[in-house]
Request: fold
Amino acid sequence: MRQRFTARAVVVGDRAGSVVRDAALDVEDDRIAWVGPAAEAPDAGDAEVRALPGVLTPGLVNAHSHAPMVLFRGQGEGLPLDRWLREVMWPREARLTADDVEVAMTAASAELLANGVTTSVEMYFHPERIAAAVGATGARAVIATPVIPLPGMPPVEQQLADAVALAAGTPDDGTVEYGLGPHAAYTVPLHLLRDAAAAAREHDLLLHLHVAETATEGAGLLEQHGLSVPALLASHDVLGGRVLAAHCVHMDDADLDLWRKHDVAVAHCPASNAKLASGIAPVRAMLDRGIRVGMGTDGPASNAGLDLFADLRLAASLARLAGRRRPR
Reply:
């Protein structure tokens, strides 16, 4: 099947940031076959031609999401992260069935697609049912199977072994890729984080975790170990390989230098950070160091939405706010 789409402009999505005006894009057998100025397009032949309003862009990538939390949108309003998790989210999630997760992910995936998000990095329970949901909607996902010590769940060592077996034993089909999702340094034992990182490097898997999301998280670990969260992770050989760290709000220059040294990527979640009053991530300082920063919505319970464009607008506003200069 051949299709041609025309638009006032096409964002190519290359590293140069190319934008082609009055453009055409050809799709053949579900793959992009050609893109460029409509006046230079090859003969359309029997292709179906469809004129699109506005701008045609690549699908957005949501770098950090717990999308099945659509079931809990609006619950626990006004609570800080620690109380929101322990009093609201974790008790509710303990009652979820695999069927619940698949239904919720199907609805969330449709919402993501409606907002232009074609790929999301998901950290949530019942990963194979999440894969089934995105398979039904036609989206793509990187599913970092969570590892977290919660009541009613297997021991974390067993959780990690199961997550590694799933990720290493399932080939990447271009639609779903599995990775490892140990929750955070303040919830998962440090030796297990080290083991998860070693397994991720051995099998070339994505290691996805929450880092320095709140000030209290870092204060507790600093008091116990004498190190910031990033430094603690580095000291336990967690960094290196394919590491994607969510939030990274409370980080100083030394922490950011560690991120640059180990090529850690960041999932910036401004709406969630603002709603839970976690703080404003130092994005300008990250970018100045060449740290790779992607955008994430976080879960729709801590964001209230899955609209990545809204998060992009908020990210720009918060960056200006954080970098403001006081008048002399």
